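@channel sequence for tomorrow's demo:
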Amino acid sequence: MTCRPTETPEDIDIPAMRAKYAQERERRLRKDGQAQYIRTEGKHADSYERDPHAEVEPRDPISEDLDIAIIGAGWSGLLAAYHLKKAGITSYRNIDSAGDFGGVWYWNRYPGIQCDNDAYCYMPLLEETGYMPTQKYADGTEIQAHAKRIVEKFGLDEGALFHTLVRGVQWDAGLERYRITTNRGDDIRARFVVMAAGPLNRPKLPGIPGIDDFKGHTFHTARWDYDYTGGSWDKPELDKLADKRVAIVGTGASAIQIVPHLARHAKQLYVVQRTPSTVDVRENPATDPEWAKALKPGWQRARQENFHKAAMEGLLPGVEDQICDFWTELNRNMQARMEELGWPQLPMEEYMALREVEDHRVMERLRRRVDGIVKDGETAEALKPYYNFLCKRPLSHNDFYDAFNRPNVKLLDVSATQGVERLTERGIVANGQEHEVDCVVFASGFEVTSKLEQRWAIEPFEGRDGRSIYEHWEDGYKTFHGMTTHGFPNFFVIAFTQGGLNANITLTFETQAEHIAYIIAQAKKRDATTVECSEKAQDGWIRHVRETQLDMSQFASICPPSYLNNEGEDQLRWYLGEIYGPGFYAFDALIREWREQGDMAGLVVK
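structure tokens (generated this afternoon):
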């Protein structure tokens, strides 16, 4: 079936809308920026670091010498293990605070959880495992099962340490190894460390005044409490909420999937919103077996490349959008506009002006969708997103807006006070009015743009001469190819630092994992004690990245405050790191060519 451009409104006063966007942004800005959130520690540590899904099995502390410690067992840690084993390396351990592999898909088991982008792209190693997702947006249960499938098929679970929180990582010059300490009393001496903690590894908690005074029940969406709500991950019938008044704080990616379930089961539901999300239709057909049968080898990489172009870089003449959803709509419509114009070589300024028009048309379509569903006019207006597309993560759901037509559901829009005013012993105060509740669910996201020490929560984390990684990167990332850094021998990172970014996060991580596995395999082949990028190579890469990178600061500065722009702080820490400007596939080609040369240029191998 041909994927066609969408029909979008044309009757838009763009100058007036620009002013509206700026006004809506301004009234949501807070002087405290990231400081509005508090660490999940102290009184809150148990609620947010405790595993509600599995009991912690007692074990004796481990004291050992190890080739490779992989910190993390989510997608990045799992893909690191896969590529290390593929390279013939088996002496490694994944270390994770969770009770099993899966990372964000282990922890997040809230009702209604699904992948919110194309599962045929997102779920890695489909061809390698011979698995096909059951639907376009796979359920969380299916995604975590696929993580386990990869582990079992390739034998990646030998030696994994779960329910183990890394507390410290320090380079020992005498041993020429990293000493890793944990909350289980372990002393692990690893020759190599691969940091694979992922961007969504720690829940973020809003520092609402009075949060410690509330006498009711609280939990974060990433630690869903089915003992309290009733139901289960695979059968989210939240029957224990029938006599409960519940408030959910947040209307982002998690909340829009949860709200319809809470609305069906809670006696009263308050949805607390600072900034609305875009919520489009979610067309989620079952996988067509005939389509799957006709796919040719290499289909997943080809589809991932198509998604990347359609969602981020733009579609070229004659290239069809294979994904055909809300992620790719804007660029699909731009392709149609350019075709109408005969694909002229427009100056960048004219092209961006044309794109702005299409951006406003898409956003207006999404706002009018709200009017077509939500019956109460005031509620509908508050749910409309007034900002540019991609200022917030685009979302889709078929039942979210309908939930606000239920008599037991009330939207509390707290944009005027820039968030919840306070919690009391009995409830939540919004717009000067107290609403008594039995339970507050925090759908407040993760430590994505917080300072690195808060995201990783490993202290100390030191390289040569006791140098702290946090001090080393305090004024910006310093890497070679985004994966190694001078002064930290045998240390590698899979993360958003200074490299290629694919629209599909798992492919970004897999590309890094493959490259890191190659370097470690080469180091072992050459009987190297240490491998580390030179300062010259590091400085050259930093210079190259910054000379070629796309300047995202202007776009971020017009978006409402969120994790996408570091809560609107003046000092922007782009949550996706410093993106390699020439693009993901240019970066992939660059590091592949580097590997093919075989001389490990830029690395000091001892």
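heads up for whoever presents: The mean pLDDT is 93.
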